[in-house]
Design a protein that fits this description.
283 residues; 2 domains; 62% helix; MFS_trans_sf
Length: 283
């Protein structure tokens, strides 16, 4: 093109994703904290596993929705589809990528409405275990010292809240066990996200699949096993009542097996395309 594109529509997508992230983020940390405080200690792993498994179902349906939208022409509703002479198998085809944002946004908005009817505070069940491991760890580090009751809590200034946040963050990152676990999680998610991001494009280029079919296959084959693994891990931890050391050994063993099996990806591939002047000579 002689002229560079001057559209700034990507800013709307950026802001939309930012707002979506702000809205989604509190569910996981606050949900896990609630489960840890209000559920029996032996049931927490199962509940947390259910929470993460449900979170895995969202991307799976997202890939399936993306597969459906990729089959529809980008200007659907604005042009006569009978005049389109190319199909989704053509490299010039552009799917209705914007349709997924509208469907996902409307669904997110509707799913957020029930949260407005939750009470401000919830009573703790009497049968819940009061001697929580996490609470004991916090008491050992002095984080729960001078704790105020909800009735005596007063609104605090932003400067005080930021100062307390910095103090708490320093204590948490100073915990060697937690910091090691955090680094391990970053490495695991980085590898998984890279794998999930580039695998559809790899399937398109190497195996000659359409964008629609690549997204469909990724949604069906990659994410459900992860959700199933998280759920089974929670059940196993509940059944054998694993402590911190037992859970660490369990995680290390399965992670090592996962990395060993992942090496098989190096043996997956196809021969290079025959391109004159690049992969073969002109003769």
């Amino acid at each position: 093109c002689e002229k560079e594109p001057s559209s700034y529509m990507w800013i709307y997508i950026l802001l939309g994703n930012m707002l979506r992230g702000i809205g989604e983020t509190p569910i996981t940390p606050l949900g896990i904290s609630y489960l840890d405080d209000f559920a029996k200690e032996e049931n927490v792993p199962v509940y947390v596993a259910c929470l993460h498994t449900t979170a895995m179902l969202g991307p799976m349906f997202g890939f399936l929705l993306g597969s459906l939208c990729a089959k529809l022409y980008v200007d659907i509703g604005f042009v006569d589809l009978g005049s389109i002479t190319i199909t989704s198998q053509d490299s010039r085809w552009v799917g209705a990528w914007w349709l997924g944002f509208l469907i996902g946004g409307a669904t997110s908005f509707l799913s957020a409405i029930p949260f407005c009817f939750l009470p401000k505070s919830l009573k703790k069940p009497e049968e819940a275990n009061k001697d929580k491991t996490s609470r004991g760890l916090l008491e050992n580090t002095g984080a729960s010292k001078n704790k105020l009751s909800p009735e005596k809590t007063k609104p605090r200034k932003w400067s005080v809240m930021l100062k307390d946040f910095y103090t708490s963050l320093k204590k948490v990152l100073g915990n060697r066990m937690y910091f090691t676990f955090l680094c391990c999680s970053l490495l695991q998610f980085s590898g998984f996200i890279g794998f999930l991001t580039y695998k559809p494009k790899y399937m398109e280029q190497q195996y000659g699949q359409s964008t629609s079919k690549s997204n469909f296959l990724i949604g069906i084959t990659s994410l459900p096993p992860v959700g199933l693994g998280i759920f089974l891990g929670g059940l196993i931890m509940k059944k054998y009542k694993m402590g911190i050391i037992g859970a660490t050994k369990f995680s290390f063993t399965l992670s090592f097996l996962s990395y060993a099996i992942s090496f098989l990806h190096f043996f997956v591939g196809c021969d290079n395309y025959v391109v004159a002047g690049m992969t073969v000579s002109y003769e």
